[in-house]
Structures are given as structure tokens and as C-alpha cells.
Amino acid sequence: MSWVERIIRLIETSTFRHAALSAFVFLLMAFGSMLLSSHQIESLLLDHVHGLVLSDIQEQERKTLSDSQTLASRLNRDLPHEKDDKIALVLGPDGTVLYGTQSLRQAVARNQAPATGWRNLSIQGTNTPPMRVVGMQLQLADGGIFLSAFNVLPMLERVRVIPIVAGSGLFAVLLSSLAIGLYSSLRSMRRVDRIRSALRAYVGGEREVTVPASPNGDEFDLLGMDINNVLARISLLMDEVKSVSSHLAHELRTPLTRLHNRLESAAERVDSELRDDILAAVEEAERIQRMFKAVLRIGEIEAGRCAHSFEWFEARGLLGDVIDYYQPLAESSGITLRQEACAGCKLFGDRALLFQALANLLENALKYAGEHASITLLARLRDGCVEIGVADDGPGIPPDQRGEAVKRFRRLHGSERSGSGLGLALVNAIAKLHSGVLLLEDNPPCGLLAALRLARNHWDEERAGLIDALRS
Predict the structure, then answer these.
(1) I need a surface site. Which of 73, 103, 146, 194 has the fewest CB within 10 A?
(2) Same structural domain for residues 465 and 323?
């Protein structure tokens, strides 16, 4: 599995999604908190400046504010230069600047506000740094103007670092939470992979496999203990069914064999008319024996109790063996067998079981395709999967009946030409044992395509997951 696929699987885990969602919500809350705190800090700062301005005006009122010239002289004496971001402006009755800067006088003139009230001015000087002036303007008794204000821009720049520092800390917390979520997701994904690998091994026939679990662990260990209890119960029930099936098979095999032998012996001692009836009864007994063996075989394959060994092998060789085995039967009916297998197409599975599956599909095709038909055994790659199957130009199976065709004892072509109705059920069981599916599709221009579709990525994940679980 590539790193990209591992990262995608990690992102798809519920633990990582919850961590990412929590981090995203936390990020939105942090961003909102930064904006709100910045606004609150600016509001508190402006309220503080308003208080300082009112205090300064009250102080100047105690020293009289009636004469602009006297006020300017006092300010020149008390405040020879501006300090601590405090700003003052005194204009005479004729608008001349008695105290303050010309740029501040121009800003007041541009404001065009009433003579008395709060001012919030922005000053962009060419030779001086920008300022944001907040203060109160008063009209004096002689018609002059007095403005007491503060340059709040340096103050704001000093306090704005607070939300930035807080945001940096919140961002660090966010990264830490994502890292913790990533670690938790990776740990959870590994433990889930171990459980899946153990379950795949159990489905594959390894009845002794167990899920790693600790009695004093977390919820995964509790889940593993419950799964182990369920697997142990299933194994016990399967052993009991196997014992009953084996006993039943043994008990029925002997009477059926005796019945078969007695019917054959009786057929040799009677005349021709009765002999035909007895031989027909012999064929029915043989059919019952074959049906009984097929049912047991399907049960063994579906339960994973059949002896099987998975390995890699060439699909072309498997198709060739099936054609060689059935070539004489096909030639006797004038049927042409062909093989279509893409180069380098390999299968991972039990060769004997896949041979049996193809044999059942080919027998059905030989039975229903008709004389002088053409049957193709194919192996191809499609949509990341390997398909092996049989395509014929016979009557096929109607689409609305294909779901019934793979069930046990379903005969769709009439009892005379049909068998026991277990052939496709056996093929379907073999396909499921290989984690695949049995496909029944149209074979243009006419006929049926019956194929086992086996996922290649499942084989890679099966081996990689099992190896990782064993290493861990």
C-alpha cells in the first residue's frame, strides 16, 4: 500500500475526522475570540483616552478657559513640547494657530464638525508619521478653539500584539490537537487492521486465529474479547455441524451404495422390459448420491472447512487444463472451445477449487449451448479486478432470473435437461471463498457470460494486513 493510500485511509478514520472537526471549530472560536478581543481592547483604550481628555479639560477649566491667548501661553509654559502622545491645539478667534501644529489645524478644518464635541481625526503628514487623534474640541469665550486630544495610534500598536500572541498560542494548541488526533487515528487504524486481518484469516479457514485483546484494556480490547467469544462459539457450532454432517453422510452413504448395488444386480437377472426400469432407478440413485455430495461440498466451502491452499499461478495455465479435460466431450458434440487470456494475468487462490468452478461453468455451457456452438474460456483484467469465466452463444439466462440461478436447487431450463440445480451455487460459494462474486451477464450478440470476478487489491491488502498484524 502506497503512502498516499495510507494517508487517505488515515483521513477517512472517524478518530481523525472528529479531531479535525474539533480543531476546525476551535480555530473558528479562536479567530472569533481574536477579533472580539481586538475590538474590546480598542474600545477600552478609547474609553481610557476619553477619560484622560475629560480630566485634562477639567484641569484647564480650573485655570480658566476664557482667553485663547492666555491658554496658549500656559500650555507653552506647562507643555513646552508634546509628550506621552498628548496633543493640544489652540486657535485664536481669527483661526491662527496659537499652540499646536499646522497639520492638526488642517485636520480640524477638514472635519467640518460643530465647534464643541468629540473628534476622531486621521492625519497623514509628509514629513511626520501618521496619527490617529482622539479628543474633545471646545469653543472659548473669545471665539477661539481649544482641542485636547491623544494620539492613540502608538497605543493601539502596542496593545494589538496581545491578540497576535494569543492567536499564536491558540494556533500552537490547534497544531498540537491535530498531532494528537493524527497519532490516535494511526493507533486506532492499526488496531482495526489487526482485527480485520484476524477476521479475514478466520474467514479463510484459520479457525485458531484470535483478535489481539487485553483483559484490562480499552474499548478495542473489549471489542476484541467479544469477537473472540463469538468466533469461539461459531467454531464450536461449525464443529458440531461438521460432526453431524459427517455422521449423516456416513450413515446415508452405505444404504445408498447397497441400494445401487442391489439394483445393478437385479438388472442383470431380469428381462429387458423390467431391466430398463431398474437401470433408470440406478441412475436416480446415482443422481441422489451426486446431489448429496454437492450439498456437502457447498457447505464445506461456504464454511471455509474445505481443504484449500491459496497461491499465485498463471490464469492461462488454468484455462488450458480445463480445456484439455473437456475437449473430447466438446468434440463429440461439435462444439468449439477457445481460450482468451491476457498476458501476465495471475490469480491468487486455490487452483483446485477454481478449476472446479470453471468446470461447472463449462459443463453448463456444454449442456445448454447446443451442437456446433462456440464456447470461450476467458481471463481478463477489468476495473482493477481479474475475471475468469465462460462465454457461450446459447440461449442464456433471462436477466430477471439470474439472481435465482445461483441459489440451491434452482432449475431454470426444465427438469429434463437440468441437473440438480447446485452447479452455480457451488461456483458462487467458491467465488465468495476467494472474496469475489459470480457475474452472470449477456454475451453479445447472444449467449451468456458467467465469470468469477476477483479483486486484485484485496489480495494485496490481505497479505499486507496480515503481515503487519503478525509483525505488530
Answers:
(1) 73
(2) yes
In-domain check, residue 224: yes
Instruction: Find cell 465462460 and name the residue.
Output: 390
Return the HEC string of 194-206: HHHHHHHHHHCCC
Nearest residue to 105 via CA among 70, 75, 149, 69: 149
How many domains does the structure of the chain reveal? 4
pTM greater than 0.70 (yes/no): no
pLDDT for 410 equals 65
Same domain (yes/no): 32, 172: yes
Residue showing cell 491476457: 342
Rounded Cα distance between 83 and 85, Å, is: 5
Nearest Cα to Cα of residue 365 among 413, 431, 320: 413
pLDDT the model gives residue 317: 92
Neighbouring C-beta atoms of residue 218, cutoff 10 Å? 10
- Segments forming the whole domain that contains residue 110: 63-159
User: Can you tell me whether residue 168 is helix, strand or coil?
Assistant: helix
Q: What is the DSSP letter of 217?
A: -
pLDDT tens-digit readout, 409-459: 666 654 445 556 677 888 888 888 888 889 998 888 888 899 999 877 555
| Euclidean distance between CA atoms 453 and 450, whole angstroms | 10
Neighbours of 65 (CB within 10 A): 18
Instruction: List the beta bridge partners of residue 12.
Output: none
* Side-chain half-sphere CA neighbours of 383 within 13 A: 4
Domain at 367, CATH number? 3.30.565.10
Residue environment code for 384-420, b if the CB has 16+ CB neighbours within 10 A, otherwise e: ebbbbbbbbbbebbeeeebeebbeeeeeeeeeeeebb
**Helix and strand counts by DSSP (H, E) for the chain:** 13, 12
pLDDT at 324: 92
Specify whether 255 is located in the same domain as 293.
yes
Same domain? For 136 and 164 the reply is no
